[in-house]
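Continued from yesterday's entry.
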Amino acid sequence: MKKIIVIMSVFAGVFFAGGSKAQINISINIGSQPDWGPSGYNYVDYYYLPDINAYYNVATAQYIYLIGNRWHFANRLPNRFSNYNIYNAYKVVVNRAYPYQNNQYDIQHYGQYKSYRPQPMLRDNNAYRAMRNNGNHYNGNYNGNKGNSHNTVVAKRTEKKVIKQTNRTIKQNDRTTKAVRSTPQRSTVQRSR
């Protein structure tokens, strides 16, 4: 009888218990950032492009640019920006909602970066490339995991050096161990009182 009551109370507790309301949402959009984006950022909402006073929305992959007094959203830039090289242009990471609604702030604070060029891109970052080439894409190695013959020879040479150094260390340790063993040890005699 006691078991039945315990089982029924556990069942009732599980049945009537509400779901957990605490949820954690961590958003990292490294994989969705474009190759031309600056490196070093885990999360990006928008890029501000000071050279053309436009934005790029990472989530929707759309450019946001002014025509007259209205902001236009498009998957590519209009023809008037055909000479604009996005890879060489300076990009400012903007993580606030609807940054184009406060465009004057970005012009005042980031307008100084017009025609400013030195900025590392994601496509040039080795860690980013390794993440993108996680075995599902071509990584430039036609031999699979075999490597080329030069690297194999260098690896064998290095391995031989390590083995020689290890053997030398072991021999030295053996000598010191033998030397310690061969030294006469003093006998300790305890005096009785």
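--- second protein ---
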Amino acid sequence: MITFSDLYSVLSAMVPLYAAMLLAYGSVRWWKIFTPVQCAGINRFVAVFAVPLLSFHFISTNNPYKMDVSFILADTISKLAILMVLASWAKFAHTGSLDWMITIFALATLPNTLVMGIPLLTAMYGSFYGGLMVQLVVLQCIIWYTLMLFLFE
């Protein structure tokens, strides 16, 4: 049974994130506070400074010697299986292409765990599972994003 304290912990993790997104959307669409040029500047700041620094924070606090090997192995095997299925589709199907293979792989296996997933998972299941997501983010940044860049080239 879901208790009030469980609901409160999940909502206290989700409401600030979604409230910020709703206010940002409203400030551009409805209230016209930001111009498209200012939005481009904010997007550049987020892409160049905020997300890399947040990623660095999570990567630097992770201890690679205490990573859960079976969890990482399960995640890696599932991503490789999806990659092999998509590569077969891109090679043998007449509608398949490398561009769509990369896009579908990214959508299916590389979630937005850094900003939304870790706070929500920590609120729902505790800090242990938030730590597991941090391990996935570390591998995402080191291995899977590098593979994506290689495939794009």
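The chain is about 85% helix and 0% strand. Residues 4-29 form the longest helix (26 residues). Will compare against the first tomorrow.
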